[in-house]
Every structure is written in C-alpha cells, then in structure tokens.
TrEMBL record:
<dbReference type="Pfam" id="PF02355">
    <property type="entry name" value="SecD_SecF_C"/>
</dbReference>
<feature type="transmembrane region" description="Helical">
    <location>
        <begin position="266"/>
        <end position="285"/>
    </location>
</feature>
<dbReference type="InterPro" id="IPR022646">
    <property type="entry name" value="SecD/SecF_CS"/>
</dbReference>
<feature type="domain" description="Protein export membrane protein SecD/SecF C-terminal">
    <location>
        <begin position="246"/>
        <end position="410"/>
    </location>
</feature>
<dbReference type="InterPro" id="IPR048631">
    <property type="entry name" value="SecD_1st"/>
</dbReference>
<feature type="domain" description="Protein translocase subunit SecDF P1">
    <location>
        <begin position="76"/>
        <end position="140"/>
    </location>
</feature>
<keyword id="KW-0653">Protein transport</keyword>
<dbReference type="GO" id="GO:0043952">
    <property type="term" value="P:protein transport by the Sec complex"/>
</dbReference>
<dbReference type="GO" id="GO:0065002">
    <property type="term" value="P:intracellular protein transmembrane transport"/>
</dbReference>
<comment type="similarity">
    <text>Belongs to the SecD/SecF family. SecD subfamily.</text>
</comment>
<dbReference type="GO" id="GO:0015450">
    <property type="term" value="F:protein-transporting ATPase activity"/>
</dbReference>
<feature type="domain" description="SecDF P1 head subdomain">
    <location>
        <begin position="150"/>
        <end position="244"/>
    </location>
</feature>
<dbReference type="InterPro" id="IPR005791">
    <property type="entry name" value="SecD"/>
</dbReference>
<keyword id="KW-0472">Membrane</keyword>
<dbReference type="GO" id="GO:0005886">
    <property type="term" value="C:plasma membrane"/>
</dbReference>
<keyword id="KW-0811">Translocation</keyword>
<feature type="transmembrane region" description="Helical">
    <location>
        <begin position="368"/>
        <end position="384"/>
    </location>
</feature>
Length: 434
C-alpha cells in the first residue's frame, strides 16, 4: 500500500510542476504570486487568426497555361513561396494553404493566406504583391508579341548580383534547377536569332537576342537599373518568384478586440463548465468526486502544457474541442465510479471495490475512447482547417483523458481507500442503495 501512496504523491507533485510550468512560461507580466525562475523559457500559447486578430486573404491562381499533371506541384510551390515571403516581414505564424473549389462545372485553384496580428489589409496585400512573378516569353511568329513558355520562377534556384567587368553595370544572374535548366536550354535552342523576353510582374525587364543554345541553366538580366534596385530585385527573387499568377478575390479582417473577446468567452465557458462539473461530482460522489476533480485539474494542466510545447494553434473551434474533451475525461471517471458503487453494493470492501471497479470499467472506457478517437482522426483527415483544429485538440484530449482517468484517478483513489469504517463508507457511499 505504501508504494501506491508514494506513487500517488509523486503523480500529485508531477501535476503541480506541470501546472507551475504553464503559469511560469507565460510571457505576460504576472503579479508576484509565485516566483518565476529566469531559466524557464517564455512560451506563449499559439493563437489562430480568429483569436489573435489578423487578415484573411483568398487568391485565385491562374493555372490555365499548366498541364493538369503540373498543377498540384505548382500550387504547392506557390504556397511555399508565399509563406517564405510573409515570413520575411516578421509575421508571426502565418498560415498559407492551397484549396481547390468547384464553382458549377468549373474548377478553381485558390491560395488561402492567414496573417495573425496584421489588421491592415493594404499592408497584408503589399506583402503578397511584392513577391515577383518571373516569366520567360518567346517572340511571336510575326514578331509583334511574345508567347508564354513553361519556364517561370518556379524553377529558379537562386539569383545573384554581379557587375559587368567593362561598364560596371549591375547584372542579375539567374540559376535554374535541373528541370529549369533543361527548359531554358530547349527555349534558347528553338529561338536562336530571336528575342526571348524576361518578364517580372507582367512587365518586360530584359529582352535579349539569343545568339546560341545555352546549357547549364544560367540566365542574365541586364537593364537600366541602379545597384540598389538590382540588390532589391535579387532579394525579391531569392525570397521567391511566383510560379503562377495570382489574383486577390477576397479579404477579411479580424480585429484584435474581437479576438480577445473570443479568448475571454472561451476561458469563461471553460471555467463555468469546470465549476458545474466540480459541484456535481462532489455532491454525488463525495470523496471519489474530489479525486476526480483533482485528476481533472491535472488533466487541464497537461493539456495546456501540450498546447505550448507541440505547439497547437488554438482557434475558437479548438477551444470548443478542449471543452468537450473535459466531458470525455469526466465520462471515464463516471464509468469507474459507478462500477465501484456496484462492487460496494455487492458487499466488497472499499479497497477491493476500487481495484475491481477500475479493472472492470477499463474495457468500456477503452472501447468508448477508441471509437471517439477514430471519429476525431476522420474529422482531421477530411475536414477543413477549422474542423482540423477542433479534431486535433479533441483527439489529443481523448488520449490525455485516458491517462488521467486510468492512471491518476486510480492511484489517488487507491491511496485513500483504506479501512472500512463508517466515515470511510460515508465518503464512498453516495448514491448506493441500501
């Protein structure tokens, strides 16, 4: 028995340490209730756009010049480029994702950009708009226009600023990857003696005449620009040239005040639900109810610590999933306590009823949680971003709740279930028919 009680004490200490970590790792200033050592790293909760405020942008991608087999790769490349671009501006945790929409019989490829903390739409659009679209176009047969080629900034490996050794004019050298080098070789081979124009953001910046086939994947941009302008161009190209053109079709701003209210409402809902659960458990289950509340507090501390350490992006849907997971954690305790009551009705001693009740309730808890976890996985796999946030937090809560119910509650109850006197029977006998 002393080993059980020692384990229960160690688990309690562990729970207190986890709770202290959640408290101490908050970056916000705190009242001097508890000392906060300097070695504890400040880890804020990662809040989604709907909680922290920011800008939601939707772009339509023009993939009309791409083959169907190349669209997926181009959209993924576009996502990576835009994510790199907004990261350069110091936006905290941008969320950039591709989406395919069907409008009637037409299919539309979209880029969804969430910028937490950016509530100035013009600033947000400028971040994306500053990403250049690099294109190579060849001379039309009649020499009056240029024709788009498959070679775009998607294949750009890096841009380098150099200077002409004679006139000391800035030159921007472009190095393509393996596929881009082959495309460039083919284009120059087929257009010897003709013009091949280099377009940036829809405007020609260099229109050289091809003298010979160029292999090796190295192209040069020469033009009437200063060294400073050339340096900026190199930086923009290296941060990512858009593989396909995009058009802004929707903007939405979530104010910081609205985000703070959503967080406050979520915390309030969680506290109210916890208080109601605590009152019910203490009144109905007495000592086991107190143990359940203690386990639930440690469960909450574990979940909050995991939110910080993983980290989990908390949205309004995620907070809803967390609150529902509290119900799942409570449900496991209810199954255990009701089973213990049945064993007590059968005449078992309190310590034996606790051991047997946990053992027999485990199978019901396991099956119920597994089926719920499967549902959470399906929601995460097939759901949209908001549904995925709910499913992730909910699924994580199911796993942690099984740990808190089976491990924490079991050791705490076994640690206090000694003797069989009237006082102990009173603490365990609520709801048991005589």
């Amino acid at each position: 028995m002393w080993k059980v009680r020692l384990t229960a004490v160690l688990l309690l200490i562990f729970g207190l340490l986890v709770g202290y970590f959640v408290y101490a790792s908050n970056p916000e200033p705190k009242a001097a209730l508890l000392p906060v050592p300097s070695f504890i790293k400040k880890i804020p909760f990662k809040l989604g756009l709907d909680l922290s405020g920011g800008t939601h942008l939707i772009y339509r991608a023009d993939v009309s010049l791409l083959k169907d087999i190349d669209i997926s790769d181009s959209m993924n490349s576009l996502r990576d480029v835009i994510e790199r671009r907004v990261n350069l501006f110091g936006v905290a945790e941008p969320v950039v994702q591709v989406q395919e929409e069907r409008l009637g019989g037409l299919k539309e490829n979209r880029l969804i950009v969430d910028l937490p903390g950016v509530t100035d739409v013009d600033q947000a659009v400028a971040m994306i708009g500053q990403t250049p679209l690099l294109e190579f176009k060849t001379e039309n047969e009649d020499g009056t226009d240029f024709v788009s080629t498959p070679l775009t900034g998607r294949y750009l490996e890096r841009a380098i600023l150099e200077f002409d050794q004679t006139a000391y004019q800035p030159i921007v050298s472009l190095q393509f990857d393996k596929d881009g080098a082959e495309l460039f070789r083919q284009i120059t081979k087929e257009n010897v003696g003709k013009l091949v124009a280099i377009y940036l953001d829809g405007a020609p910046i260099s229109i050289p005449v091809v003298r010979e086939e160029i292999s090796g994947g190295l192209a040069q941009i020469t033009g009437d620009f200063t060294p400073k302008e050339a340096k900026i161009l190199v930086g923009r190209l290296n941060s990512g040239a858009l593989p396909v053109p995009i058009e802004l079709i929707s903007t939405q701003t979530v104010g910081a005040t609205l985000g703070e209210k959503a967080v406050a409402d979520g915390v309030k809902a969680g506290l109210i639900s916890f208080v109601i659960l605590a009152i019910f458990f203490v009144l109905w289950y007495r000592l086991p109810g107190i143990i359940a509340i203690l386990s639930l507090i440690i469960y909450i501390a574990l979940m909050l610590a995991l939110f910080k350490l993983i980290p989990v992006t908390l949205t309004a849907a995620g907070i809803a999933g967390f609150i529902i997971s509290l119900g799942v954690a409570v449900d496991a305790n209810i199954l255990i306590f009701e089973r213990i009551k049945e064993e007590l009705r059968g005449g078992l001693k309190i310590s034996d009823a606790v051991t047997t009740g946990f053992k027999r309730a485990w199978f019901s808890i396991r099956d119920a949680n597994l089926t719920t976890l499967i549902a959470a996985i399906i929601l995460f796999w097939f759901g949209t971003s908001s549904i995925q946030g709910f499913a992730l937090v909910f699924g994580l809560g199911i796993i942690v709740s099984m740990l808190s119910a089976i491990t924490l509650s079991r050791y705490f109850l076994r640690g206090v279930s000694f003797g069989n006197g009237k006082a102990m029977k009173f603490l365990f006998s609520s709801g048991i028919s005589k």
